[in-house]
Amino acid sequence: AHVSLGGASRPQRQAVAFGGCARIAMTTLHKALLERAATASSAGVDENIADFHRALVREHVPKNPNTPQDAKQQQWRKHDSEPDIPREFTEEARALKTPGGFRRNHLHSVAESKGIPMEERPAAWNKSLVESVRPLIRVGYFERVLGMYLGEDGEDVPAPAGTMSVQAMTLATAKSFVGSGIMFLPGAFGLGGWLFSPLAMCAVAALSALCIRLLLDCSDKLQTCSFGEIATAAAGRGGRLAVQVSLVVSQFGTNIAFIIFICDMAKSLGVLEIMSAVQFVALLLMVLIPLSWIRTVHNLEYPILGADFLILCGLCIVAVYSFSKIAREGVGPRLEPFESSTCGLLIGTSVFSFEGTPLVLPIKQAMERPEDYWGYFQWIFLGIVIFFVSFSSIGYIAYGGDVQPVVIQNLSADDPLIIGVRFAYALALALSSPLTFLPATRTVEFWIFGVSKVKGEHKWQKNILRAALFCLFGVIAIFGGSCFQQFVAITGAVCCAPIALLYPPWFHLKICAETLLEQVVDVVLIVVGITVATLVLCQSLGIA
Q1: Which of 368, 371, 432, 354 minimizes the C-alpha distance to 173?
Q2: Contacts with 16 (C-beta within 8 Å, 6 or more apart), sequence order
Q3: DSSP label at 490?
Q4: What is the mean pLDDT of residues 121-143?
Q5: What local confidence, expressed as pLDDT, does residue 485 receive?
Q6: Partners of residue 164 on adjacent β-strands
């Protein structure tokens, strides 16, 4: 191509030159492969080279969705007269294109030359970095909990085979329970008191772990990882619908909490001094609504991983600043061991913090050895509980009665690092929003539109539905933002408490309980779950 570069800047000329060199290099490589392929055809050797070249040609054919399939076949066949390409070569070409593909291919080649069998090679050689940390993204887990396996258009897709390693399982389990909501816990500890709060959280954690064990027993007996299918077996279609509604509403409640959280961050950064809360929420929705139109969170893998990194950095900075404040100034003012009037809000927030309970089912099924899951889970869950209690106690002790609902607001607003952390945390929540919204809204779309018979059917109706849902979230956030802690506690009581504390013993009683002791334990847990939900709801609404 002849390009006039007379008026181009130096970077533009360098870019054009680099692109030209890349095209020349690729052309030279393809010519060399073609020459090797021609030689191979006449001499009867190195047929793999010719096959691999044809796979590369197929991989580089421009994709045009409007081009008929026959025309696409002609596009790549014109480069070579051989119509059939072994599947393994196309897959190998695709693997080489991924980041680190050539390095992993070289390692396998060296191992093969040394006679090292595939099963003795490190598992990391078979996947890229993004694939290794993909359990952090929780893609697909929510649908598997519901037992619906929904695709982009509401169609059923098969459940993936179990290939998850112990390390990946650990990451997935930790991500299911540890998220941005941990920033709410120091403020919630202020509602319960420095003595009562750790004990109450440990009690909620113990109940949650016991209920998870009961849920896994039901899963083993029915040979399913679907919370919805377990509910159907135990209580019919009504039980399945109750589980689905609880899960969907809890995810929507999390999205509302994110919007309130972002508004609080905007207020702490002075944004609400130049515009009203309504105007800011409207601007925020202009970002969140287009994100909600994304059909699959696989397109957001890198942003979601970036959000997780920002959340981790925020947690570390809050912990360091809280420690330094205690060392420099001592404990905060007005520390109370027990707050009787608001202790229920602490319990509700604790239940909300363990919202990842149903996700243990698909994580277990995704493991290479599912039978080992419970042994690992006990230690992972213990570490999560210790982290929750330690982080929350440090934040509350550092700021005492002055602790804010979101502890990051207690940090100095004059520190440039803290300003950056607040902005980054708000950005992380915005990027995480599609992760919690997409699976739940797919379920709602399935209820309304059913399975799409044609790809893209009802696309704009679904987009309007998603936009309307986020507008509803924004309205709730505007009017409920001043009662943030009550909102989180109500969400925990109405949605998370049944999921974590009520449904598992109920289903276990119907499916697995055989002895009198098992039945008594299940009934006691059901009564405890109802009592906790009632207490939290009454205190949140100001009834008690």
Answers
A1: 354
A2: 3, 5, 8
A3: H
A4: 52
A5: 81
A6: 367
User: Residue 335: helix, strand or coil by DSSP?
Assistant: coil
What confidence tens digit (pLDDT) does each residue in 422-454 have? 888 888 888 888 878 887 888 898 888 887 777
Task: Render pLDDT for 36-88 as a digit per residue (tens, 0 to 9).
Answer: 545 544 444 444 444 444 544 454 444 444 444 444 444 444 444 444 444 44
Q: Where are the alpha helices (DSSP H) in 274-415?
A: 277-292, 301-329, 343-353, 360-366, 373-399
d(CA 432, CA 47) in angstroms, rounded, equals 48
SS3 at position 403: coil
Comparing C-alpha atoms, which of 146, 204, 219 is closest to residue 367? Answer: 219
Q: Which residue has the tokens 């550092």?
A: 398
Helix, strand, or coil (residue 97): helix
CB 355 within 8 A of CB 250: yes
Written as one letter, the residue type at 61 is V
Helix (H, G, I), strand (E, B) or coil at 293: coil
Calculate helix-pair angle for 373-399, 166-177, nearest 10 degrees: 40
Burial class (CB in 10 A: 0-12, 13-18, 19+), 332: buried
Distance CA 208, CA 26 (A): 57
Distance CA 249, CA 447 (A): 14
Say what the pTM is.
0.72
Backbone phi, psi, residue 453, to 5°:
-80, -30
Q: Rounded CA gap, 430 and 288, in Å?
A: 7
- In the chain, what's the furthest Cα-to-Cα distance? 89
From CA 355, how far away is CA 370, in angstroms rounded? 22
236: left (phi over 0), alpha (psi -120 to 50) or beta: left
Q: For residues 411 and 186, is the Cβ–Cβ distance under 8 A?
A: no
Task: Please give the mean pLDDT across all residues of the chain.
Answer: 77
**Rounded CA gap, 197 and 191, in Å?**
8
In 3D space, the residue among 114, 96, 94 whose CA is nearest the CA of residue 105 turns out to be 96
Task: Report the SS3 class of residue 2.
Answer: coil
Angstrom CA distances, 36 to 41, 88, 181, 348, 410, stand at 9, 20, 59, 69, 68
Tell me which residue has tokens 């649908």. 143
Q: What confidence score (pLDDT) does residue 96 get?
A: 55
In angstroms, the CA 485 to CA 474 distance is 17
Distance CA 337, CA 14 (A): 67
The four Cα atoms 345, 347, 348, 350 give a dihedral, to 10 degrees, of 120
HSE-CB at 90 with a 13 A cutoff on CA atoms is: 9
- Continuous segment of H or E residues that includes residue 30: helix 10-43
